[in-house]
Amino acid sequence: MKHIHRAFGITLLLSLSLFSVNVWAAPYISFSSNRAGNYDIYVMDINGENLRNLTNHPSWDSDPTWAPNGRAFAFVSNRDGDSEIYIMRRNGTEPQRLTYRPGPDINPAWSPDGKWIAFSSGIPEKQSYDIYKIDTNGQNLQQLTDNGKYNLVPSWSPNGEQIAFYSRPNDPGSIYVMDADGKRIRRVMRPQDRGTAPSWSPDGKQLAYYVGIMGSGIYIVGVDGRNPRRVTANNIWSYNPTWSPDGEQIAYDAEIDNPWGNPNVDRNIYTISVKGGKPRQITKHAAKDRNPAWVPEGFLSVSPSVEKQTTLWSRLKQAKNATK
After folding, report:
1. What whole-number distance in Å separates Cα of residue 300 and Cα of residue 90?
2. Measured on CA atoms in the order 256, 262, 265, 269, is the torsion positive or negative?
3. What is the pLDDT of residues 76-126, one digit of tens each?
4. Residue 120: which residues within 8 A CB-CB, separation 6 or more?
5. How far is 182 from 163, CA to CA, in rounded Å?
6. Any idea what the CATH number is for the domain that residue 217 is in?
7. β-strand 61-66 against 72-77: which pairing, if any?
8. pLDDT-based confidence at 193, cuts 50/70/90?
9. In which domain, by residue range, is 264 found?
10. Considering the domain boundaries, does residue 320 fall inside one?
11. Alpha carbon of 197 to those of 151, 272, 305: distances in Å?
12. What is the number of other CB atoms lying within 10 angstroms of the CB of residue 280?
């Protein structure tokens, strides 16, 4: 009988393991939304299910970026009166303020090694922004750019050695790349291409970006600036691309209707193959959902269902040992 119990326990453990993988292995996407009346950070799976409000605060919370291990995310909030960068642990503990500069701090981007957060910081009296980086303890602040009026939306290369960003020194603005210490700044896109909000492909060979004029769309270009191509359909207002970890999809937010003169137009999260084709709509809400960010797999361990499965698995292992 003991052997029967042991066999049953092992079979049940294996079944539970497979069930857990099948249900929870799908990637998650986080985004900011004003669906509750103010902007908060939400997370849901790519099937549009299991929606959770992560910040749930009356302030304005947006622009999520995740630690590589999925244990924390950084975001922008005005909960202390100005736009600053905060870090929140995945277990829902109180967010910790990271930046204390006098102007607005926006566009956080977590480095691949988990040690740094790059961000854009503004100087209101000069109407300018520069790129900075700071360690995750709020120490060692470093200014990386001082070359123009606007330097925004930093994006780390997969190896952490370079940062792509949007800059507008004395022209309409374009995409630039610099070393992670701010040296060797060089332009990738021509000014007339007007690319912004770059996102690095996982293999480090391409950049996704959007063009913000006359029906904004999502494009892909080589990091050498060659062979730009449009991924989304013409005349669909699409913004804020972010590459999936497997390099096969791009998440972005889009407004189907022309936004000019229509402040109440909705915005939703979509994914599309990097080869183009028909996009898949992830959120379907009358509010504005924007700034998608793929969530690392480490986040999955905090799902209530996963925790329950882990607890049950532990109990089954104890029961299995007891039958030996």
Report:
1. 10
2. positive
3. 999 998 999 999 998 778 899 999 998 899 999 999 999 999 999 998 777
4. 105, 106, 107, 129, 130, 131, 132, 151, 152, 153, 154
5. 8
6. 2.120.10.30
7. antiparallel
8. confident
9. 30-299
10. no
11. 11, 17, 35
12. 15
What predicted TM-score, i.e. pTM, was given to this entire model?
0.83
pLDDT of 190 = 73
For 168, 253, 291, 301, the CA distances from 47, given in Å and listed in that order, are 37, 16, 18, 18
Cβ 61 vs Cβ 77: under 8 Å:
yes
Q: Phi and psi (nearest 5°) for 27?
A: -65, 155
User: Which tokens is 278 given?
Assistant: 């028909």
- Per-residue tokens: 88: 């929140």
Answer yes or no: is 41 within a domain: yes
Hey, what are 270's tokens? 């979509």
Residue of 181, 146, 176, 141 lying closest to 160 (CA atoms): 181
Query: Within a domain: residue 23?
Result: no
- The answer as to whether 22 is a domain residue is no
- What distance, in Å, lies between the first and last C-alpha atoms of the chain? 11
Total domains in the fold of the chain: 1
